[in-house]
């Protein structure tokens, strides 16, 4: 019955074979120990079955009274008992060590001071003294020599005793992630003691060793005091003669023998298991270089021959054993060289290439289980941290730390990594290292693979004691989630575009010293270096996190501003933007972490006065720079849905209209940013600008209808309303500075009084114009009704029936021509379609135009050419009305439509470019003629847009004129992709394109007029 009761308890405790283990409780070796009262302690054990079997073997080994008493004492103390069970249930190797060395039980579980996490306290000095004493060496000697006859086995037994003591506490601590750094530091100190003791053994074996000083320089994890339970110990040896009895060559020979004997002490076959391999491959020239060098030889190599990765390896260098004074001179001499390595050509690119090579060499079968080298593993974190340290540590001493966790904290505190990202990296590093420790403890073998076997996974999971992990599937889930998170952070931080640029900076660039900066800024193209320095000082002064991040960004951004035509203006705009954003967390985080966002922002602000003025007024636009897809124009459906949601919360006509005008301002800014960065082409930008106007007018119409009904004291509209786009808006070809040409149509509802309907419709149209042109709130969008019947003298709006009567009886040719671009954009969609059906026969006449009407169009065109170009403006340079300009091309395309669209349905489109393409396809224009017209029209449109974007002017004749001013021309040329030395080429290219287009206009427009006249 007792065995059945135990079986139930053992099953609950996690035993895999509870029945078998229940029978073992009666083993004679356990007699008198009352193991049954300790069964609850097995709940926390990684492998209870293994633990019980090892305990029986340990009890059998403790036959001597002294050992038996020690074991009984351990079992009687709750902490010691839990630690013993934890150790036996996780590590077969350390369990076997205790079984074969029962005399070590007292040392492993000896009382003593503990840290906050329960890990035994100690330091490097304690471990050194303890290890030297174990091999019979005097810790006080300058060069201790072992007197222990069996020094190697004594050293190893002492080492495993100390490791078992740390492991027992680690396996039972309440928070293993918190304890991980302390555990690694203690392991490293124990390794340091072993190195010192091994060196003492070596001196006992090498005759004449007193004539040479040898220092063991710890590298990698050993140097950073973050070793695993089992790691190769990376070292570099430095030596020097201690007296004149040997020359340098003899001293190096003696030192090499000492290093070889040290290697034997820790890794050669002996009675006790080997500790670990001493890896000296990080020395100068690697395996091909001499094992030991003098300090002078090391320095000469690093100054002349070392590659970037070798300096990265030195980042964690630390004297670990031997002559510490010599070791400190080594560090003092080479440490400054580490922080200059990042300035070497292609340093960042080479570091990244090395990381990719490491990833590529991970065997495919291990890819999903590789904790250390694979994607999302420890190396991702370590490479990320080390690269940021090396790039930014040149100017920031706080980053000159060795341990990964200390470095993450320094990068966080200095603003180089976002707090959230740093916290994630810290947590993930601790988790992966803890998981690595648990995997290695089983057999105390070097391994970085997450187990695939069910039994091994279960054992590791039960030993984790964190993240809610208790089973194999849970540990696999946490590992995969952590791996994914680490990889994401690595790619976001390690591949920042900022890093290669920051690495290229000289010390003067980084320091932002005023005297050095003035000369540099002037040489880069800043016209007012003093003013630029004032901006820099304002942005970087102080000790706030914001100022710290600005100090990282600005040395690089100054060069990016200089890539634009107006770096001074760009820097000023950046200051305005930064001051407006204050300490908004996402803003600087976006510039630091947001891929190419910072470089894109610099280019925008220094290339476009419009953007320099408007980006600070809409700071959210900075967020669009992270992903280019956010710079793509929004569709009309997306804008309509947003508008509907926005105006649902507004009641006044002004608020509703301003909602639409805000959306227009935002979309104009988005489109201009996309166009400058090459994300949006000219055709797409014109369509986007047109949609922005449409959404503003749509919002204005909603507000105007609501206000007009309230003014008329009616509950709702008495007509259907539709806004018909005309001109460039109708063709979806608006420029940034274009007015919105529209006509207004209404249709009284059934039973409505027509006079009242007309009055309300006029009020709606009037209010729409006022709402769009109001100076309050968002930027204006002038609504122009001049293309309505009878022009400025005609009624502001007509009913659908009135329009039908007018176009049938009184319309002039220019009005038919204007209708070619008519397109409904707001209001009642059905009414808009009815209007289009009404006008199609007039704008697409089946037999073309009568000769008189063609002559009238020709006459109007000639008058426009002679009367509307402002005085003092060269006819060749006016982009809209000049020869070969927009008007020439558009009138030609429209005349061809009036003549041919009745026959060719493909010409029934509102876009000028689409008309030209259709004419070419139908054989109405030759390919060369269509190409010349399209090229001139495209370039003139683009120049008008770049005039607006580049100079920031939204009004005046200069928008329509090819710039004369060299500064303005340079800005426009840069936006078009010309080098600064080629800005005059812009003039030549446009004038040549305009001449070709004018020749086509002469051949087609006027020839068409003559042909009609002859008919």
Automatic annotation (TrEMBL):
Coiled-coil boundaries: none
- This protein is called Bifunctional glutamine-synthetase adenylyltransferase/deadenyltransferase
Which CDD domains does the UniProt record give?
NT_GlnE_GlnD_like
Q: Which SUPFAM superfamilies match?
A: Nucleotidyltransferase (SSF81301), Nucleotidyltransferase substrate binding subunit/domain (SSF81593)
**What Gene3D superfamilies does the record tag this protein with?**
Beta Polymerase, domain 2, Nucleotidyltransferases domain 2
InterPro entries, alphabetized: GlnE, GlnE_rpt_dom, NT_sf, PII_UdlTrfase/GS_AdlTrfase
Which PANTHER family does the entry link to? BIFUNCTIONAL GLUTAMINE SYNTHETASE ADENYLYLTRANSFERASE_ADENYLYL-REMOVING ENZYME, GLUTAMINE SYNTHETASE ADENYLYLTRANSFERASE
Example GO molecular function term? [glutamate-ammonia-ligase] adenylyltransferase activity
Sequence ranges assigned to domain Glutamate-ammonia ligase adenylyltransferase repeated in this UniProt record: 84-329, 599-835
Task: Kindly state which keywords UniProt assigns to this record, in alphabetical order.
Answer: ATP-binding, Magnesium, Multifunctional enzyme, Nucleotide-binding, Nucleotidyltransferase, Transferase
Q: Name one GO biological process term.
A: regulation of glutamine family amino acid metabolic process
Gene Ontology cellular component list = cytosol
Record bears the keyword Kinase: no
**PII-uridylyltransferase/Glutamine-synthetase adenylyltransferase domain location, by residue?**
352-492, 872-1004
């Amino acid at each position: 019955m007792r065995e059945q009761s135990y079986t139930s308890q053992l099953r609950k405790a996690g035993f895999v074979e509870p029945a078998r283990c229940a029978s073992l409780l009666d083993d004679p070796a356990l007699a008198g120990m009352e193991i049954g009262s300790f069964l609850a302690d097995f709940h926390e054990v990684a492998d209870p079955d293994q633990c019980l079997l090892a305990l029986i073997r340990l009890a059998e080994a403790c036959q001597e009274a002294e050992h038996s008493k020690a074991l009984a004492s351990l079992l009687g103390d709750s902490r010691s008992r839990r630690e013993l069970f934890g150790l036996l249930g996780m590590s077969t190797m350390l369990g076997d060590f205790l079984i074969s060395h029962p005399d070590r039980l007292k040392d492993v579980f000896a009382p003593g001071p503990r840290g906050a996490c329960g890990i035994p306290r100690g330091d490097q000095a304690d471990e050194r003294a303890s290890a030297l004493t174990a091999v019979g060496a005097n810790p006080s000697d300058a060069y201790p020599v072992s007197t222990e006859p069996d020094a190697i086995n004594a050293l190893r037994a002492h080492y495993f005793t100390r490791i078992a003591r740390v492991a027992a506490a680690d396996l039972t601590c309440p928070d293993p992630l918190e304890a991980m750094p302390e555990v690694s530091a203690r392991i490293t100190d124990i390794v340091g003691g072993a190195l010192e003791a091994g060196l003492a053994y070596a001196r006992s074996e090498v005759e004449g060793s007193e004539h040479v000083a040898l220092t063991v320089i710890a590298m990698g994890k050993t140097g950073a005091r973050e070793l695993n339970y089992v790691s190769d110990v990376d070292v570099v040896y430095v030596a020097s003669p201690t007296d004149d009895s040997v020359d340098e060559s003899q001293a190096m020979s003696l030192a090499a023998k000492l290093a070889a004997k040290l290697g034997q002490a820790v890794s050669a076959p002996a009675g006790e298991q080997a500790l670990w391999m001493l890896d000296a491959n990080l020395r100068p020239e690697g395996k091909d270089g001499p094992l030991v060098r003098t300090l002078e030889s090391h320095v000469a190599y690093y100054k002349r021959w070392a590659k970037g990765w070798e300096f990265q390896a030195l980042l964690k260098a630390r004297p670990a054993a031997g002559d510490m004074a010599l070791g400190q001179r080594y560090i003092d001499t080479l440490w400054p060289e580490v922080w200059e390595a990042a300035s070497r050509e292609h340093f960042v690119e080479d570091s990244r290439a090395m990381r990719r090579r490491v990833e590529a060499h991970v065997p495919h079968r291990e890819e999903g289980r590789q904790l250390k080298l694979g994607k999302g593993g420890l190396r991702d974190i370590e490479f990320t941290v080390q690269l940021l340290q090396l790039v930014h540590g040149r100017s920031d001493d706080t980053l000159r730390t060795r341990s990964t966790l200390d470095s993450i904290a320094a990068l966080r505190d200095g603003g180089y990594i976002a707090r959230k990202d740093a916290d994630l990296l810290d947590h993930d590093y601790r988790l992966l290292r803890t998981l690595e420790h648990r995997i290695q403890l089983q057999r105390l073998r070097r391994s970085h693979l997450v187990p695939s076997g069910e039994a091994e996974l279960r054992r590791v999971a039960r030993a984790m004691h964190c993240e809610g992990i208790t089973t194999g599937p849970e540990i696999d889930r946490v590992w995969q989630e952590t791996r994914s998170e680490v990889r994401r952070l690595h790619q976001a931080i390690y591949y920042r575009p900022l890093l290669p640029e920051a690495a290229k900076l000289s010390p003067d660039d980084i320091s932002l010293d005023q005297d050095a900066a003035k000369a540099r800024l002037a040489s880069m193209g800043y016209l007012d270096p003093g003013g630029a320095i004032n901006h820099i000082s304002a942005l970087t002064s102080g000790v706030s996190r914001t100022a710290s991040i600005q100090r990282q960004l600005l040395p690089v951004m100054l060069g990016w501003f200089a890539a634009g035509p107006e770096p001074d203006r760009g820097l000023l705009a950046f200051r305005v933007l930064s001051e407006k954003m204050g300490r908004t967390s996402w803003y600087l985080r976006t510039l630091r972490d947001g891929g190419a966002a910072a470089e894109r922002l610099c280019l925008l602000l220094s290339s476009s006065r419009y953007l320099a003025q408007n980006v600070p007024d809409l700071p959210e636009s900075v967020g669009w720079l992270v992903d280019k897809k956010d710079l793509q124009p929004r569709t009309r459906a997306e804008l309509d849905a947003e508008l509907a949601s926005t105006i649902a919360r507004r009641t006044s006509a002004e608020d509703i209209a301003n909602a639409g005008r805000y959306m227009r301002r935002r979309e104009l800014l988005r489109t201009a940013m996309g166009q400058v960065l090459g994300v949006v082409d000219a055709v797409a930008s014109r369509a986007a600008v047109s949609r922005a106007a449409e959404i503003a007018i749509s919002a204005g119409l909603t507000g105007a209808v609501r206000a007009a009904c309230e003014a008329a004291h009616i509950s709702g509209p008495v007509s259907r309303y539709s806004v018909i786009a005309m001109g460039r808006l109708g063709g979806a070809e608006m420029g940034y500075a274009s007015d919105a040409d529209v006509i207004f149509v209404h249709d009284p509802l059934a039973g409505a009084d027509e006079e009242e309907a007309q009055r309300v419709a006029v009020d709606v149209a009037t209010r729409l114009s006022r709402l769009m042109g109001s100076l309050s709130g968002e930027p204006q969008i002038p609504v122009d009704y001049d293309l309505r019947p009878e022009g400025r003298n005609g009624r502001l709006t007509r009913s659908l029936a009135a329009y039908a009567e007018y176009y049938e009886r009184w319309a002039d040719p220019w009005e038919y021509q204007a209708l070619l671009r008519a397109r409904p954009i707001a209001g009642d969609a059905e009414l808009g379609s009815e209007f289009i059906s009404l006008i199609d026969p007039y704008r697409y006449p089946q037999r073309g135009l009568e000769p008189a009407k063609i002559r009238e169009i020709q006459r109007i065109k000639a008058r426009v050419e002679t009367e509307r170009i402002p005085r003092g403006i060269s006819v060749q340079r006016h982009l809209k009305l000049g020869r070969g300009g927009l008007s020439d091309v558009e009138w030609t395309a429209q005349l061809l439509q009036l003549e041919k669209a009745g026959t060719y349905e493909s010409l029934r489109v509102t876009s000028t470019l689409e008309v030209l393409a259709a004419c070419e396809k139908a054989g109405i224009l030759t390919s060369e003629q269509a190409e010349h017209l399209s090229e001139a029209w495209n370039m003139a449109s683009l120049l008008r847009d770049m005039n607006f974007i580049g100079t920031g002017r939204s009004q005046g004749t200069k928008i329509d004129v090819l710039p004369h001013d060299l500064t303005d021309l340079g800005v426009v040329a840069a936006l078009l992709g010309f080098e600064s030395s080629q800005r005059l080429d812009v003039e030549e290219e446009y004038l040549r394109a305009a001449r070709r287009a004018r020749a086509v206009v002469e051949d087609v427009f006027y020839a068409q007029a003559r042909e009609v006249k002859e008919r």
